[in-house]
Design goal:
Helices cover 27% and strands 25% of the residues. The chain has 594 residues and is an alpha+beta fold. The strands form 4 sheets. It has a 9-stranded mixed β-sheet with strand order 20-19-21-22-18-23-24-25-26, sandwiched between helices. It has a 6-stranded antiparallel β-sheet with strand order 2-1-11-10-7-8, with no helix packed on it. Strands 14-13-12-17-16-15 form a 6-stranded antiparallel β-sheet. Strand 10 and strand 11 form a beta hairpin. Helix 2 crosses helix 4, helix 4 packs across helix 5 and helix 12 packs across helix 14. The longest helix is centred in the middle third of the chain and has 21 residues.
Length: 594
C-alpha cells in the first residue's frame, strides 16, 4: 500500500513497495525498513495507511523524526511531496495507485487515527542514541540533555542562532568518529563492563582492539576515506570513549594554560595568554557529558539534573568547572585551568616579569616574618599560582593546614595537612563547607593556615584566626585594587550572618591583615603584581593603606604588549623597623625609588 523512496545522505536511492497497512522503521532486524546507523533508534518510526492517507508516527525515538526539516511531536499526515528525515536517511512516501480510498484491513471501518498509547520495545541503551549529526539540510535537532529529557525551546533557539558553517572535512571526520563510537557500543558494552574488576590497562587494551577491528571492517567495506589517518582516528575515538576526548591533546601541551568547551562543536584554548578557537571538537554533546562524568566520579562529585554544576580537579591538580543543561543552553560546558606539571618557583615569576627580584625578596621576608597576606585579583590573574609560590617560603619546621574547594595547592613542605570541602549528597545533606574546615583546622594546632580562596562567611573565621596566634596565614580573594580588597573583606564578613558594626569589622581587618598583594591580568595575556600594599592601621573609620611597590604602565608597544615598569614607593613598612630593632638583618636598599 506504500511506495517508499529511500535515500541515504551522500549515498544512493532505492524504491520499495509495501502491500500492508503499516510499516515500521528502525535500526534492529524485524523492522520493515532497517536503517543500521547509530543515530537511528531500535524502533524509530512507523507509517500507517488510514482513509487513503499516509500518517507518520514517531515511536519515542531518541533523535526524533523530522518532516521537511521540522521535528514532529504527534502523528502527521504526509503529502506526496513531503520528505521524512530519520538519521542519515531521507524518505518519501506515496500511496500505491491500486489502493482503495480507505486503506483498512479487511474493509473494516476504522475510527479516526489514534496512536492509542501503544507501547513499543523500550530504548534500553540510550547511551548509544546520541544527538543527530550536524547537517546543512535539514536543520538538525538540538542536542538533548540526557537527564533533563527533551530540550527546552530556549535551548533550541540559542542553538539555531549560534549555528555556523562547519568545515566539510571536519564535519565528515566528526561523523566518522561518531559512527565508529556507535559501533563500538554495539561491539563492546562499555556501560555494563565491570571497570574496577577489569582494570584500566586491560579496559584500554580491549577497547583499542575493538576499535581496530571496527576500522579494519570499515576499510574493507570501503567506508573509510583514504585521506583519514587511521592511528589519529583510533586515538580520537578511544580518548572519547575512555579518556577526555579531544581534551587529552590540550592537557598534554605545556603551551596551553586554559581549555574552554562551550559545547561539543566549540573548544577554545588559551595559549601563551591568547584565546584561539581549536579545530578539535567532540562528536556529540553526549560525549562531553561522558567526559564530565569521568572527571567528577573519581573524586566523589556528581553532576545531574538536580546538581547541574560542579567544581572538580584532574589527577594532575588542574581545576575543572562543569555546567550542563538546562543551565547551559548550548550544551554541556567545561572550563579547565591547567596545573603546571613542574611547580613554578619565584624565579619563574621574575623571568616572566610578573614582579621584580626586589619585590620577590620583600615577599619572602613577609612570609618568614609571619605577616598575614591577602592575594587579590580578578579571575585568571594568577592568584593561586602566586599563593602557591609564596607559601613555599614557609619554613619546613612549621605545621601548615590548607583549606580549598578543589585541591590545587602543591607545597614542598612535609608537615602539610591538605583539606578539601565536600558538596551535598543526593539528599542535599552531608556538605562540608570551607567555613566548617576553617573552624576545624583551628583545632589541629596549625602554625600557618592557607585558605585557597575566601568567598563568603569563612572570611570572619579566617580574620579571627589571623588575630589569635596564627600569624603568617595566607588567602586569596577576588578584587580589582587593594582598596577594593578591603571593601570585599567587609562584605564577606557580613555574609557570615554576624550583625557587626562596620567600624568593628574594619578594626578586625586592620589588625588581622598586614599585606595585600594585588595581581592583574592585562589585555596582552601577561600577569603582573601591580601593587604590594601594607595595611598600616585605622584613621577614624577608614582602613589606611600604603603602597610599597607598584607597577606603572606607560602604554603599549607596537606589537600591543603592555609597556611599563615596577616602582618602589620609597616607603618602608613598619615591620622592617621592628626587625631592625631586634637585630635581624634586612635589606633596606630594595625600598629605594628607581
Amino acid at each position: 500500500m506504500f511506495l517508499i523512496t529511500l535515500a541515504e545522505k551522500g549515498g544512493g536511492t532505492e524504491q520499495r513497495e509495501y502491500h500492508k497497512p503499516e510499516i515500521t522503521i528502525g535500526r534492529l532486524p524485524g523492522n520493515d525498513i532497517m536503517l543500521a546507523k547509530g543515530n537511528v533508534s531500535k524502533y524509530h518510526s512507523r507509517i500507517v495507511a488510514k482513509d487513503g492517507k499516509c500518517i507518520i508516527v514517531d515511536m519515542k525515538s531518541t533523535n526524533g523524526t523530522f518532516v521537511n526539516g521540522k521535528k514532529i511531536a504527534a502523528p502527521q499526515v504526509l503529502k506526496p511531496t513531503d520528505q521524512i528525515y530519520i538519521g542519515d536517511y531521507i524518505i518519501n512516501v506515496e500511496p500505491l495507485a491500486d489502493d482503495g480510498p480507505a486503506m483498512t484491513r479487511a474493509g473494516q471501518e476504522e475510527e479516526a487515527y489514534d496512536d492509542g498509547g501503544e507501547e513499543y520495545p523500550p530504548e534500553e541503551e540510550q547511551y548509544e542514541e546520541e544527538e543527530q549529526y550536524e547537517e546543512e539540510e535539514p536543520p538538525p535537532p538540538p542536542p538533548q540533555a540526557p537527564a533533563a529529557g527533551r530540550m527546552p525551546a530556549s535551548m533550541a533557539s540559542a542553538l539555531a542562532k549560534n549555528k555556523k558553517k562547519v568545515d566539510p572535512r571536519l564535519e565528515r571526520y566528526t561523523r566518522l568518529q561518531k559512527e565508529i563510537h556507535d559501533r563500538l557500543i554495539e561491539y563492546l558494552d562499555l556501560r555494563r563492563m565491570d571497570m574496577d574488576r577489569l582494570g584500566d590497562d586491560e579496559l584500554w587494551r580491549r577497547t583499542e582492539k575493538a576499535i581496530r577491528d571496527i576500522i579494519d571492517q570499515m576499510e574493507a567495506d570501503g567506508e573509510l576515506p583514504e585521506d583519514v589517518d587511521r592511528e589519529e582516528l583510533l586515538t580520537d575515538v578511544i580518548n572519547e570513549a575512555l579518556g577526555l576526548g579531544p581534551l587529552e591533546a590540550f592537557l598534554a601541551s605545556d603551551e596551553i594554560s586554559e581549555i574552554m568547551v562551550n559545547h561539543a562543536n566549540q573548544i577554545y584554548i588559551e595559549r601563551k595568554g591568547k584565546l584561539t578557537l581549536s579545530e578539535k571538537t567532540f562528536s556529540s554533546n553526549q560525549a562531553v557529558l561522558g567526559v564530565i562524568e569521568r572527571i567528577v566520579a573519581p573524586i566523589g562529585r556528581r553532576i545531574d539534573e538536580s546538581s547541574p554544576l560542579v567544581d572538580a580537579r584532574l589527577k594532575d591538580g588542574s581545576r575543572v568547572n562543569a555546567i550542563i543543561p538546562p543551565l547551559a543552553l548550548k550544551g554541556p560546558c567545561i572550563t579547565i585551568r591547567k596545573f603546571k606539571k613542574d611547580s613554578l618557583k619565584i624565579q619563574d615569576l621574575i623571568k616572566y616579569k610578573t614582579l621584580t627580584a626586589q619585590m620577590a625578596e620583600f615577599l619572602e621576608m613577609c612570609v618568614k616574618a609571619r605577616r598575614n597576606i591577602v592575594i587579590s585579583g580578578g579571575t585568571g590573574s594568577g592568584k593561586t599560582t602566586t599563593l602557591n609560590i609564596i607559601s613555599s617560603f614557609i619554613p619546613d619546621s612549621e605545621r601548615i593546614v590548607t583549606v580549598e574547594d578543589a585541591a590545587e595547592l602543591q607545597l614542598p613542605q612535609d608537615h602539610w595537612v591538605q583539606l578539601e570541602s565536600r558538596p551535598p549528597n543526593l539528599e542535599g545533606k552531608g556538605a562540608i563547607t570551607i567555613r566548617d574546615l576553617v573552624k576545624n583546622c583551628l583545632r589541629m594546632r596549625p602554625d600557618r593556615i592557607v585558605v585557597g580562596e575566601c568567598r563568603s562567611g569563612e572570611t570572619l573565621d579566617m580574620l579571627q584566626a589571623m588575630n589569635t596566634g596564627h600569624d603568617g596565614s595566607l588567602t586569596t580573594l577576588h578584587a580589582n585594587t587593594p582598596r577594593d580588597a578591603i571593601a570585599r573583606l567587609e562584605t564577606m564578613v557580613l555574609m557570615s550572618g554576624m550583625d557587626l558594626p562596620v567600624k568593628a569589622i574594619r578594626e578586625q581587618i586592620a589588625s588581622a591583615v598586614h599585606m595585600i598583594v594585588q595581581q592583574t591580568r592585562f589585555s596582552d595575556g601577561t600577569r603582573k603584581i601591580c601593587y604590594v600594599t601594607e595595611v598600616s592601621g585605622m584613621e577614624v573609620d577608614i582602613v589606611t593603606l600604603q603602597d610599597i611597590f607598584y607597577y606603572k604602565q606607560d602604554g603599549f608597544t607596537e606589537d600591543h604588549k603592555v609597556r611599563g615598569r615596577f616602582v618602589a614607593s620609597g616607603f618602608v613598612p613598619k615591620f622592617y623597623d621592628e626587625l631592625q630593632r631586634k637585630g635581624i638583618p634586612v635589606n633596606m636598599s630594595i625600598f629605594r625609588e628607581d
